[in-house]
Every structure is written in structure tokens, then in C-alpha cells.
């Protein structure tokens, strides 16, 4: 499950003396990289510290943060894979002859990871071309203008700056349940699994949980969602209810659709849209 950093190997300087920058950004995800590039283009000296601690299952990745490596991008690719599979099933109705071959999880993983790594590499190149110093190092504050950046080999750099930007993002949290760390994976792991997860229990009903449930179901796995109370808390609840009550739209459309879906249409539908049954004529 571990991803080799390969060409994403640290670019950190060998120099271990204090280095000063106008701006040091903590976090090399979408936010941190955009900010660092913009500041450099405005003439500031900029450094980015980015370090990915492995997930409990041992997964790690390169530059670019959540979105590129374990978020939006691989998620959308997995959805696309699921939708293509569903279209293939549905295509029989339109006269196509869908092959009966099984989905190859390993092919999808290989291609998703190749694309993710190429995007991550492009981010690294953008740092170089914009003169942003990149440190594959975990930064902690020593004082308001100093961070210690611990590199992968354990060596510590000292970076000082006039200003810092915190763009450290977030990681999935595990519930305090015996066995959770040893036996469960999160979205940090699912986009690089060597073998398919198979029948899956998704714990939680956030958008990440439901999206993972959706693409796994679309890829043909049996999926159950364990939800405590509210699905998609904080999102439009009308849409959330729609998703929960229609969790598995039939991928195999009715091959014999009813040509007359409404055999008894009302010949005189009420044209009055006023819902008030007793309107006051004096008003
Ligand atoms: C499965 C999934 C699907 C998603 N889909 C979408 C979507 O469709 N659309 C959307 O808008 N958003 C989506 N998101 C959310 C989106 O990915 C995040 O909001 C976004 O990536 C956050 O970017 P960021 O730069 O703030 O942080 P991150 O991308 O998380 O980057 C932070 C980086 O900082 C590093 N770091 C942390 N602490 C330190 C430290 N002390 N020193 C050095 N480095 C550190 C981290 O390892 C990480 O590399 C999705 C998220 C997930 C998990």
C-alpha cells in the first residue's frame, strides 16, 4: 500500500544553518502551493515545508496535499470508473453488446496513481520555476518567527521568516474503537489499495464517506453505510435526503419502458396555482 516517492524525493537543502525567507508556508497542498507561488511571483522569497505522515495503514504520498493525492482528483477518477461501468451495463438497452469481463481494480489503481503522481510532479516543477524553496520536512514553531523543519532522515533545519502561512489541511480521524487502527482504512488509503476492498462497511455519512460508498458501489461492491444520525451534516438537507432515499439508482434501466407512463392523465388539470382554497375577495 506504500507509494514510492520516486521522483518526488526531497529537494531540501543540505545546508543546516538558519535560512531566512520573507514567507514560509506550512503545508504543500492546494492552499499552501497557491499562496507560495503567488507570493514568489510578487517578488517575495518563499519556502514551503510539506510533510506527509503515513496513514495508520502505511500509505503516504508526494507533494500536492489532499486534493491531488487522496481527495478530489482520485475521487473523481473513481466516480468516472463507476459511471463508465454503469453505462456499460445500461448500454445493452441501446443495442451495445457489453463485454462480460470483470473490472480490473489493479488497472484502475495503476492509472489513478500514475495520474496523481504526474500532477504531484508538476507541482514540484512549478515550485522550482517560481523559485519557491521546497522542504520535505515537518515544521514546528520554535518562536513566532522560527520553525524547526524535521526532514525525512531526521535532520532538522531552522527556517526563519517575516511571515508564515498555515495551510496544513486535515486528515481523517479514527474513532476510539478497539481494532479500528489495525483493521480499518480511510480515504487516505482507498485510492492506492493493491487489491480491491470488496464488500465494504463505510462508517460515517460525510460527503467523503458517501462519495467513497458511491464509487465502490458503482464499481460493483456490496456497500453498507453506518450512519449515526444526519447524512451530509451541514449540506442542503433536501439534497441529502434525496441521496439517502435513492442510494443505488438501478444501473440496469428497464429494458421495456412503458410507452405510456401516465395512462390516465387528468384531462383538465387545475390551471389555478393559487393554493388558498378560500381566498378573501375583499383583499
Ligand atoms: C476523498 C476526498 C474528496 C474530496 N473532494 C473534494 C472535491 O470534490 N472538491 C473540493 O473542493 N474539495 C474536495 N475535498 C477537500 C479538499 O481535498 C481539501 O479541502 C483540500 O485539499 C485542502 O487543501 P489544503 O491545501 O488546505 O490542505 P491539504 O491539501 O490537506 O495540504 C496540507 C499539507 O500540509 C502537510 N502538513 C500538515 N502539517 C504539516 C506540518 N506541520 N509541516 C509540514 N507539512 C504539514 C500535509 O501533509 C499536507 O500535505 C476532498 C477531500 C477528500 C478527503
Tell me what you see in this structure.
With 283 residues, this protein is α/β, with parallel strands linked by helices. It has 8 helices and 8 strands, in the order E-H-E-H-H-H-E-E-E-E-H-H-E-H-E-H. The strands form 2 sheets. A 6-stranded mixed β-sheet has the order 3-2-1-6-5-4. The chain has a two-stranded parallel sheet with strand order 7-8. The chain is elongated, with a radius of gyration of 26 Å. Residues 1-14 and 253-283 have low confidence and may be disordered. The structure holds flavin-adenine dinucleotide. Flavin-adenine dinucleotide binds at residues 26-32, 49-52, 65-67, 70-72, 75, 138-139, 167-169, 187, 208.
Short structural summary:
The protein is α/β, with parallel strands linked by helices. The protein is built from eight helices and eight strands.
Poorly predicted parts:
1-14, 253-283
Distance between the termini: 72 Å
Catalogue the ligands.
flavin-adenine dinucleotide
Largest beta-sheet characterization: 6 strands, mixed
Order of helices and strands: EHEHHHEEEEHHEHEH
Q: How much helix is in the residues? A: 25-40%
Q: What value does the average pLDDT take?
A: 85
Structural class: alpha/beta
Strand percent estimate: 15-25%
- How many beta-strand segments? 8
The best one-word shape is: elongated
Radius of gyration using CA atoms only: 26 Å
